[in-house]
Each structure stands twice: as C-alpha cells, then as structure tokens.
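Job type: complex structure
Entries:
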Amino acid sequence: MTNQKTAVARLEAVATRAGQEYLEKEGFVQLFPPRLVRASGACENIDTLFSVSGNGQNRWWQDAAGNLLPAYLAQTGQLYLEAFVPSLKKVYCIGPSFRAEPKIDNRHLTEFTMTEIEFAGDFEDLLRYIENYLKAIARQLIDHESLALNDWGLTPADLTRLRSLPLALPRTTYDEAITILKNYDPQIAWGDDISTEHEKMLIKHFGNQPLFITRYPDPSWNHGQEIEVEKFFNMIPDPQNPGRVLSTDLILPFAGEAVGAAARIYDLETLKQRLTNSRMFKRLQEKGGTLDDFAWYIANLENTGSLPHAGCGFGMSRILQWLRASNNITECVTFPANRGNLI
Amino acid sequence: MTNQKTAVARLEAVATRAGQEYLEKEGFVQLFPPRLVRASGACENIDTLFSVSGNGQNRWWQDAAGNLLPAYLAQTGQLYLEAFVPSLKKVYCIGPSFRAEPKIDNRHLTEFTMTEIEFAGDFEDLLRYIENYLKAIARQLIDHESLALNDWGLTPADLTRLRSLPLALPRTTYDEAITILKNYDPQIAWGDDISTEHEKMLIKHFGNQPLFITRYPDPSWNHGQEIEVEKFFNMIPDPQNPGRVLSTDLILPFAGEAVGAAARIYDLETLKQRLTNSRMFKRLQEKGGTLDDFAWYIANLENTGSLPHAGCGFGMSRILQWLRASNNITECVTFPANRGNLI
C-alpha cells in the first residue's frame, strides 16, 4: 500500500477507536445487531435498500408460519439497539451501513462504517453525547501531534482547526436555518430539504465549525403543505414546538451531514400509528412489505415496554473527511465502496 | 429483554472487547474491510455466498471498463487485511461474516461476528496469538468473577473450567488426528473431513480442552487420491511435511471449529497458480466468475509485494458457546440469525 493509503487506514483506526473508548468510558455496552434484515433495518430512505438472495432465491428466508421472506442489507442498527435500552440503558454498535446509492461521486458510498448509540435519556443528553464523542476524537489527535502529522496524514492546519473547536458547538433550529438561508438563496422555502450547498452556507454563517441543526418538521404533523424534508417515523414530537420533532443533524465543515439523531417515541400505540402513516411505510407497502417487517421490534416493545430514550448514528467516513479537511469521501476511508468500486 | 438475553448481550460485549483489547495491546491496527464484495470476499466454500442486488438488478455494479458485475456478501476480510500487512505489519477487523447456510440448527448461523487478524510473522507466531487471544478472554472472565456470575450468565462450573485452561493448548496434526480417530470410528480414512462428531471424540481424547489440529492436506498436492477436506488456496506448504500446509483449526469443547488459521502464500506467481488451480476457483468459474474477481488483491501484490505473514478468523459465536458450555449457538449470541430467523 502507498504511504498515503496507510495513513488513511491509521487515521480511520485511531478515530474510530477514540470514539469507541469514549463510549466505553461512558458505560455504553457494545451490541452486534444483524446486518441481513427485514425492512426494520431501513432508515427513512428505503429506496436505497440492497436486496439479498440465497442460493439464487430472492425469498430464501422463512418465518414461523412458513412464509418465504425477502432480506435486505441494514442501513441502521437503530431498532435493534433500542430494544436493549430498557435492560442495558446505554448501548452502541460499530458496523457497516449499506446504501444502494447509484451516484459515483465525492460524497456517497455504498457501504460505510457507522457508530450508533441508543441510551435512556433525553434530547439534551443526546446533544451532549454527540458533542463529546466528536471532541474525544479531536482530543486524541491533538494529544498525539507528532503521530498525527507523521503517521496519520494530518497537516498542522488540521490540528490548528481541531484545537479551535468551541466548548459548545453552535446550534440552530431548522426554522432558523431556513430563515438564515433565505439571505443566501431566495429560492429556499420552509419545508425544503437542506441541500449540500445550503449546508455549506450555514457552516460558513456559523463560523466554520460543526453545527447542530435541530427540531426538524414532524413528518406526522399536518403542515397544510407537502414538505420535502423527511425524517424517521419514530422521532418524538417537541412538546415546546408544535409540528417539530426532537431531532438533530450534525453538519460538519467539508463533509456535510455526518450524524442523524433524535429522541425516540417509546409509547407502543403512538409508534405503530406513526409507523403505519409514514411515507417510508407506504413505499415499503408498494414493495410488498407489511407491518410484519417490524414484528420483532413491536413484539419486544409489547413485552418489555420502553422508557424515554434517544440515539444517533455517526457516519465515520464523514467525520474522517472533517478531520482531514477533504471534500472527497473516497480519499478518507481505507476501502471506499461505491457502484463503480467493488473489490 | 429477558434477563437471560441481557446476560447473553453482556457476555458477547465483554468477550469481544477483551479480545480486541488484547490485539490493540499487541499493536494490531483495526481495518474496516468491505462486506459487499467480489468473490475475493469468499472463503473456500463459495457455494454459501449470498448475492446482492441494487435497484432490483443483480449486476448493478460496474468496473472501469463498464462491465456490469455481481456482488456478494463477504465471508471473510482476509484478503483485504493481507494487503495491509507489508505497511502496517499487524492488522485486524471485527465484523459480520455471512454464510447462506440452509440448515436451521444449533450449530449454524447465516451471520456471525468474526474477529480476523493478519500479521507479518510465521506459523508459530500464529499459534501463539490464537492461544493468547483465547486466554485474554478467559482471563477477563476469571478476573471479574462476581460480574461473570451475576451479570454475564456464567456458572461457577464455567469459571472452574476456564481456570483449568492449560498454559500450552494441546496440538495434534491432521495425520495424527486421523490415526487417533480410527480407534473411535473405523470408517474414517485419511483425506476425510473431520466432522462435528469426530471433533467431539478428539476433544475428549485430549482432555476436554481447546485443541489445535494442524497441518492439513495441501489442496494443491497430488495425493494420488481425491481428498474431501478442503482448505483455502493461499495456505503455504509445510516445508517439513510434503503434501501438508501450515494451517490450523482450533477446536473448542461444546462449539467445535472456532478458528481457521494459516500461514499465507506471499509469492505472486505461486499464489496465482494455486488460486487458478483450486477447486474453489473452478466452482467460481462455473458461476461466471474469473480471475478478475481477485484483480484488486493481485494488483496490490504486484505493486507492493508481500512478506511472510499469517492470520486467522475467530468465530465469536463459537467462542461464546465454549465460554457458556452450550451446545446451542443460537442461545449464545444476542441476535442469532439463520434462514428461519430474519428480524
């Protein structure tokens, strides 16, 4: 391997491990959720699910009643982690997230490492964990300057930038972000998605630091208009802001959205109602899916109940982009996988 | 979750982490190899490869020339790790290994966590790493007796058994093992696979401790007969024992084969010759595969060369079976996945 590739591998190892050590120190227990799953392993974008077949058969699996089932590659371990929050309180996993992303570009991968956490706690706890997770990684690099410069491929400017990380990261709500963006892009309207270009404007506006965008529109709320921005079905409504959910995305300089996070619904009936009314579920039904795809998750909630909890997924490759100040995700991970790079 | 399931999750976390800590202490660097791969992610048993499709298309990926390619789920990260041995010397990964195993039983899973290592070193180093990895896990449980008994679901008998782990684990060669087995099963012949029942006989014969079976028949050697036992193409021939390779399986009480290991071929021409003449490659060709499936691995070897190295994969679920003295693999992992249990 080239020196450059070796440095990429080393930094990926160091950053992922620094994050893991932080979580272990905080008492999180590592789980190993399945990656070959029903639709319960999908995030909101089920159109990018990969399908898997065994021995040439798409419906190779079977349920207890003998029905043949299709399987997908997991995009997230979230629901599997959530099931263990009542008993273990703080859980995490580190593993591949798969996306059938057709674009071959500098921003997307078909497979990337995601560190995910779920814990008993509230939205403020969640923001704190995300902030501290990021700082634990930056700290590890700052504290090993010589290795960072000589072995891990960072520049003095990278370390200077990491040292400037503010004690409290800037935060803006989705509503505020749209208002701010109107100064830069008069076309944008409330309800729109925040694009990569918009993310760049916001990052610059907030001083070129990681930025929390919080309280996105509630997908289950009647906004009196179609909204483009789409969030996962089990985000909890914000009691202070009708029509908004307690969610946040962390946007990083160079990388854009690197963390998706929310406080979760934990009441069974509310959850089922929000799931079956979600756009994601409607698309799943068009593909032949049913509520049965979530049978394990729902049965577990019925049996053991739940408690207030929250969680997020850290996209490690986007965090690595931020560490390296790189606009090209394929240069920041050891094995960049996309539709045009299968090895 | 039930208390039993919670204990299973905790032990899985503790054991996997104890193994990881051992590797980190020894200077191994964690890599994140792809799990969505060409046939270079297959072990010798390519019949149990899962196929993946994107957007309904089996050949969704494309190479540089525009040819459409099928993709599989990785059974091993071995070749990807090997590529980094010349530069990083000691590397490891922890992740899912996928097998389209049609049997729904107490021994097989369609997905399980595997910890894999590759390092610059020889066969004796390999045996030592395997032994010490296992001991590091046992040590962690012995040293936390109260947690082990109260939170991790072990019994006093389990801990007594782990305390009796001998300083040096027993070793037998494949040839010796067959000779010994003839005393218990007159039907067995040299060249046969060592079945689960045979493994049990050997374990008992060697004092109910983990057992190394070393120096399996070389698949590329003309033995003057068909041999059933099949090993991966890039195991290195044993210079002391013509027709044998420097490989070992670690057989565990209750669990059977838990670790597959070998010193690897590192000469490009020998490697290509052994690959293209392997039974695995012939089956791959029948499925439409070519040497191109290994293009990345071969190109890397051409560009950067290699050096004497060895490695292995630790099947974590089988190690957990051994820790718990369980004959049922599905009771030993948090999310047991098989053809009849897709969640």
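Summary: Residues 3-331 of chain B form a domain with the BirA Bifunctional Protein; domain 2 fold (CATH 3.30.930.10). Chain B touches chain A through 66 residues (CB under 8 Å).
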